[in-house]
Write a structure and sequence with these properties.
The chain has 3 helices and 2 strands, in the order E-E-H-H-H. With 97 residues, the protein is mainly α. It has one domain. Strands 1-2 form a two-stranded antiparallel sheet. Helix 2 runs antiparallel to helix 3.
Length: 97
């Protein structure tokens, strides 16, 4: 099926320009760049986005930590997965990271 809006296909759905900008900002934030982004939504939506962002960042930081144990990485992954599930439940879309 052809997408008339020229959006990008991402895991079973299409990512619009706002989504592309969010993914770019997230990528910059994950590598330590300063990012200024405003997020709008209700309290639950903002909390879900914040939790997913922080859990994903903490997981990536743990992977890079030289003294990380397998258990500490698994623990951070579990928290990331729980945050991603909350994000999907509240916003209706999969967490992209």
């Amino acid at each position: 099926m052809k997408n008339e809006n020229k959006d990008t296909l991402v895991e079973g759905g299409y990512l619009n320009l706002t989504g592309k900008m969010l993914i770019a900002a997230l990528g910059a934030w994950f590598v330590g760049k300063a990012v200024s982004t405003k997020i709008r939504g209700n309290e639950d939506e903002i909390r879900a986005v914040t939790n997913a962002l922080l859990a994903s960042r903490r997981f990536q930081d743990e992977l890079q930590h030289p003294g990380a144990s397998v258990q500490s990485v698994v623990d951070k992954l579990h928290i990331k997965q729980m945050s991603a599930a909350e994000f999907e439940r509240i916003l209706g879309v999969r967490w992209p990271l």
